[in-house]
Every structure is written in structure tokens, then in C-alpha cells.
Amino acid sequence: MVKMTDVAAAAGVSSTTVSHVLNATRPVSEALRAKVFQAVADTGYTPNSVARALATQNTMLIGIVMSFLSNPFFAPLVSDIDKTARRRGYTLLLTENHENTVDESKQVKVMLDRRVDGVILAPAARDLEPVLDILANSGTPTVLIDRFGDRRFDEVGVENIEPTAQLVAHLVEHGHDRIGFISGHTGLSTTVERLEGYRLGIERAGLSFDRKLVRSGGSQIDPARRAVSALLATSRPPTAIITANNAMTIGALRGLRDLGRRVPDDVALAAFDDFEWADLMSPALTTIAQPIPEMGRLATKQLLRRIGGYTGETERHALPPTFHRRRSCGCSETRAQ
């Protein structure tokens, strides 16, 4: 059986150092951490999680609470969190919050009962205080991801306002002055910020904000499908539509298909959130792509730092997304990139 001393010998460090790296009980350099984990891989060492928990009071479990089953954005995010956590010897406990704060509070309590070492939470909309108070009062290290909500915790998300304004500006460049917007679930910080970005883009273009051009898609497929029908049924329907997340993009495409509208010939379409297959669609989708791998890695590293005992000021990270110009907005083949 491979022992910790074997890992230490392979890495050229002491057994104490190996223990600190594996248990995240002392800050070490990234180079040293990588060296130890490479030795773990080379030797095939498997830590005894029960013994480790008894020795360190850590369970090596991270609780993940988000709508990863109902929202297609979160599945790849969970995958990137898992990759980073597993390299440090942690296992994820996953639970779906259904964007419901009552369910979310219950699930967080279950995580705490399981004695997870930390929690990564994408808060549900509305009435965030109860669940965030539970986490704050428990003292369990917590990172909020995707949605900003409380400066008591580290937060990792993406810039929303300027990128959404950029989508508006791009559609205006194509001659559109009636641009519809399908917004997300009421109460989410991402919904508020992307709507703010839409209004900013409209204002910068010298256009008048028309409330009739904004419909809620509830961050879900079917409500967005209905929102498209409502937008195109107005007396002065939009010639372009922006959707505020990828689930609603699916709904919008279905709604346009229901009405026999072609993209971009009849209605141009641009979306916040990218898909792995967005460039394979016909026409390929113009999107704002969030840096999902970076978000997952950073949120996990922030959490592990807190688990390791870091007590500094909380940090808020809003990462820059990437604008993918494709064909659904009306770009020519040569301009799309």
C-alpha cells in the first residue's frame, strides 16, 4: 500500500508538507502544490478520507447549491468546479435549488448537517437574506457564483452591463431601431444588470426606451417562447431580439419557429450566454460567452483558500466575457468571427 511517506519521497518534500497540501491546512505555492499532486498521481496514493476527517475535522466535501438541472448554463460550470476540487482531494455534493428560496434554505441546511467544508452557491431569486444568514451564522466558508448578492462572502461572476450594451450597439449597427429584450428571472442580480445594459445600449444609440419591447422569459425555455409571441404580436414588433440567457435563447428560437420567422432574415437574434454548439447552428448564433472554466476554477480556489483558514476581506470578481459575432445578428460570412 502506498503511504504518504512514498509521496513525500517522490516529491522531494517532507511528509508534513504533503499533509498540509492535501488537507489545505497551510498556504503553499502553486508550484509546490503541483509538485505534490503530481507525486500523488505518479505513486497512485489514495488518502484515507475517514482518517483525514478525524485528524483535521474536515470532511473533504464541498456543497454545490444551484439550478444545475434546470438551467443549462450551470452544468459545465459544475464540471469545472469538480475538476479543480478533485485535484485537491475534495468531493462535491450537488443539489438543485429549482430557483426556489424555500427549497434552497432546506438544501443548505442539509449540506451543513453533512458537515461540508464549504459551499458554492448560485442564489435563487428574491428574498436572499434567510439562506445567506444561515450560511454566515454557520461560519462555513461560502462563495457566491454567477449572481452577486452579499458582500459578506466572496463572489465570482461576470460583467453583465457593458457586454449587453455591446449587443444592442451591434444590432443598431445593422440598422435595427426596434430591439426586443427577453429578461431573466425577477430578482436575480444578472437579470437586473443585463436589463440595465440593454437600457444603456438603447440610450447610447439615441433610441427611446419602450417598455413594450421588454418581456420576461423567467430564465426558462417555455416562458421565453411565449415572450417571443408577445413581442411579435405588438403593433410595432421588434426586428431584432436579445435573450438574456441560454435557456431563453432556446425558447426564443422555438417561438420564432412557431411563427414561421426566419433568423436573421425576418428577425435578428443575439444572446447572452454561449452554447458549445452555437457555431454549428444555421445560422450560427451571435452570443456573449461567459468564461465558465475560469469562473469555476476561481470560485473553487477562493473557497479552498477560505477552508484553509484565510480570513482577509471578501472579494468580488466580475470576469470579462467574450463577444462572438456570428450570423444570427445579420453579420455576413466575412464579418462574423
Automatic annotation (TrEMBL):
SUPFAM superfamilies: lambda repressor-like DNA-binding domains, Periplasmic binding protein-like I. Residues 2-56 form the HTH lacI-type domain. Keywords: DNA-binding, Repressor, Transcription, Transcription regulation. It holds the Pfam family Peripla_BP_3. InterPro entries: HTH_LacI (IPR000843), LacI/GalR-like_sensor (IPR046335), Lambda_DNA-bd_dom_sf (IPR010982), Peripla_BP_I (IPR028082). PROSITE patterns: HTH_LACI_1 (PS00356), HTH_LACI_2 (PS50932). GO terms for molecular function: DNA-binding transcription factor activity; transcription cis-regulatory region binding. This is LacI family transcriptional regulator.
